[in-house]
Records
---
Amino acid sequence: MVTPEMLLSGLISGVLTGGLYGLLAISFILIYKASGVLNFAQGEMAMVGAYIIFFVLVQLHLPIILGLLVGIILAGLFGWVIHETALRPLIGQPVFSMMMMTVAFSLFFRGITSVIWGPIILPAPELVPLKTLSIGIAKFSLVGVVSFVCAGLAAIGFTIFFRFTKRGLLMRAVCEDHQLAEATGISVRSILDQVWILAAVVATVGGVLVSQTTAVGDITANVAMKALPVALLVGLESIPGALLGGVIIGVSEIVASLYFDSFTRGGMMETFPFVVMLLVLIIRPYGLFGLKRIERV
Amino acid sequence: MQPCGILNYKYAQDMAIVRTKLQWGLWIAFLIFLFSMPLFMPPIWLVFLNFIMITVITVLGLQLLIGFCGQISLMHSATMAVGAYSSAIIARTFAIPFWLSVPCGMLAAGVIGIVFGAPSLRVKGYYLALATMAAHFVIVFAIAHAPLDITGGRIGLDVPSATIGGFAFKNDLSWYYLILPITLISGLFAKNLARGKIGRALVAIRDNDLTAEAVGINLFSYKVLAFFICSLFAGLAGSLQAYYIGFLDIDQFTFWNSIWYLGMIVIGGAGSILGVLFGVVVWRLLEYGILLAGPVLNPLLGGTIFPLLNAVFAILIIIFLIFEPRGLAHRWELFKVSYRLWPYSY
């Protein structure tokens, strides 16, 4: 039986994890908006980010601030390398090739991280203390609050960035039309590089926050995969919407697991976001805030 | 390109699969080779061959859907699971013989294909890939979490042994001679479908769906038909695999399997029936090679042979996408052209 207390704490943790999903979805939307590539390897990028932070903090024993800085730089480099080596040669190829490329990358990252760091999950370096806060009867974790704040900051920051800065405007121009942007003198290549670097950094932050509550390993990627349903729910366009979409997914999966798990012997938590994704695609393919493109087929 | 002196005067000649006497000879030699393979192969290899052929059947369906119709499906292994589970459950509960339960499984898989393929009219490209990916997780969840007495959940399900007219398929040799004709017939069926009216319609949809609709091809019915046929193949392969292994477990049908099938298409070449054979054989031989080298490699890598396999396959896909987007089938065509013109090639 679901007590009101369980429901309340479930709702709060759903909102907080939802913020995390939103953060990962922002990184996803950045890439899709600018380059038109739907990155199936998003969860794995977050996982690689978590591994990088693990590497610099635990294996190299760098102090936290320096380590995070080095980790972020490495993550940015990683995003740049993916774009330059794999996705640039595919410009003009059909959707299937692009999709296969990102899918192949997700396979590759899962494989290569296991080969390098071993097939077991690793304990994440503790960046945020594992504390439980409580206000009244509501209990929530500090990690959740931190990740929600990060997601909120990222959403606000990117909204301002895209609306008011020159570079953000250039990125929007590139995402509108590559050829037109090139014709007005924008270097599409360097803008896309910057977008991939940004997205890899955001994914790394998300992956590190995910690993704080779980561990570093393919489990990180599995959680981060939920950014896909979130991004699709909001329609792959809106950055502030990603936060809302994340909260919707986070809350609905908790509620679904509270009420349906007894009928299905568990597992609702992992599957419900994909049920939502399927429904969104069938009923409203352009999502909640996406632009409805007119097609005549 | 045809060899010198071979000219087509009729449409039938233009469309013929086997055009020259040399081709006839080679095909017959190839068939004899296939049927006599168990004579000179160590018996353990028959297991590999059987799995290769089952994979060929399932990838044929995916090739018709992706290579010819241009619709992406990431739920192929879930469709296989549906076929496998339905044939096994039907055979268990109603004591239906093998030859009848496999078509039932195919039909069930086909229905699932129609249900999840029907949205393909509205959602395209990436969105279709995402929809089928979500469908994969939903189907697998439904099978793993259905009531225990139906699908066996995470515990698994015993499949009755396959018998036709009192003859029980028990050892790998008898299975080889069962699966080989089925594979050949499936290949011929796919080839004929691809060069007939349906195949032309599917190619038209792949190349430009607006134009296809303008010349009178009913987009919806052909897309759904493509999904249906693709799922029939998957159901056939899934049922055969279930009977062959004799045990069903949802972990035999992972999301990564679907991706491997796509990888085989990339390596073999999208839009070519022969490419399916190339892709599957190259992929599986590499897989078995790495697994055979496992005892040597494992101590070096700390027991991470399976992740290594994934990484190697991923690199293979990436290399093919960048350097040979048309796959091994294209290489094969180039090779044929060069030896047919030899020694006067320019």
Note: Strands of chain A lie at 132-135, 138-141.
---
Amino acid sequence: MEKHKKILEYALSSLLRRKYKNLAVIAVFSLVVAILASILFLTHSFKVEALNVLIGAPELIVQKVSGGRHDLIPTDYIKRIQGIYGIGRVIPRYWGYYYDAITDGNYTLMGVDEDVQKLKLLDGRMPTKNSECAIGKGISDVRFTGIGEKMYLIDSKGKTLTFHVVGVFTSESAILTNDLILLNKEDILSLFGMSSDRATDVVVQVYNEFEVPFVAGKIREMLPDTRPIMKGEIIRTYETVFSWRSGMIFTVFFGALIAFCILAWDKATGLSAEERQEIGILKAIGWETSDILELKFWEGIVISLTSFLTGLILAYVHIFFLGASLFASALKGWSVIFPSFELIPYVNLYQVFTVLFLTVIPYVASTIIPSWKVAITDPDVVMRG
Amino acid sequence: MDIVIKTEGATKVFNPNMPNEVKAITDVSIEIKKGELVVLKGPSGSGKTSLLSLIGCMSRPTEGKVIINGKDVAKLPERFLTEIRQKTFGFVFQMFNLIKGISVIENVMLPLYPTDTKLTAIKKQAEFVMEKLNILKKKNFNVQNLSAGEQQRVAIARALINEPEIILADEPTAHLDTKLSEDLIKILQRLNEDGKTIIMATHDPFVYERPFINRIIEMRDGMVKKAMVR
């Protein structure tokens, strides 16, 4: 133990001797870890938030399709669907996307229903009568409006409608509510110019979740112009979209990663004459090859772990405190670009260990291997250069 | 007197069977007894340093034997050679070979770092040898800030910290002026009087003409030309 303590102490003193060179390596190394970890943190946070949203989402949604395009569904389909065995309630939903020219943002407008009632309000209450609305925090911020104030929206005929803001919400998931405006059903119908015998889609409650695929098949058979969407499909789509986007960013930063690998390899393999001489001297005065390797191991570990932890902290601050300013827009996608929101920190330990494995271990290995090559050479040969 | 070092037909070839092959020493057979002060004399390139490296287990002979305290070390695994270097020899190099950027005392303590001796005990031992060599006052100095003579004394202190029975010195006066060379010779003479076996490679007459030198082994072109007992 005493021996290892002294070797560690000497390793730290060795690092301090070459402090400028090592600080430069730590800076570059930390930056690379920060980029990698930022992408992973952000992607994971989005995925978790998306999954959180979907936990409360219905197991089965049915949309009408006309010529391959999503169309409004006739409400008389509800009775026909209810006839299928094993189905509970079938609830129509009224919602749609709204482009707001003032803020150049896309909002989600939704009629109040039971699902929406589950959302938590940051302040105020849910709309209970016409001309009332509850809005997401993002919209409240970009439209500079809040409880007791007014919200103006343009309807399908180009007429300006005035709503009283009665609530601003938050939820477990910022993704869900940030761009949301909640209105009464009649207001939604009027704003979008929908007839009262049409809904945007219908939610189907199935008693046994294992029967969802079977029920979906039955609906498709009975109503060929509909498209049943299962929750599992949506989850898979989210995961694919975020994985694809993170992959795209990884590709963009691939050049930087390669540059770092070259730098690390060059630093580690290209032992300077001074470093080779030092290994020769240590061997000559009685250090074993294993002692040299232990020394280089500690040097590599100190550099790479310091860089890893610094990079991780930088990534955490960048993502969860600075709103992922570097590449959030690439990962968030168009629909939520405008109303910004704060990400809730979710860190996947598996991903942290992946970054650790991809950065610390190769660096330590590339530090030890060239030193080992020198250490197994006769000290006389090493010292002669 | 016991024979502590013996070489039998020792030959050292660098880069064998390559275009840049160099035969550093050829068929060298010598014996060195315990407590002797022996000088390996000869011009540059005569093989003095290569022979010193073979004796000090810093390289292995291409052919022949190197016997240290009765044990042929030529074919011993690296681990055992390290142990012999650590416990038997103290090295004083021509270029001092100190580690730059660390203090005098750290340089002196280095040989005992990879042992289980406690740091405080190592420090005490380092201060003891530094006191003997009159460099204790400079213990916290960075070695780069010392004069050549002081650096040479630090190198000797480092060679002595593990209390070796044999000291190998390669051209120890090469970078010292007359006064510092005189001081160094006195130190080596004192160590020899204390019972240490000393083997010194030099081509400096200021060193090898001293009367207390027991034996001079003259080398030329990698071979022993002449051995003289004084």
Note: Chain A touches chain B at residues 1-3, 5-7, 9-10, 13, 17-18, 274, 277-278, 281-289, 291, 376, 378-381, 383 (CB under 8 Å).
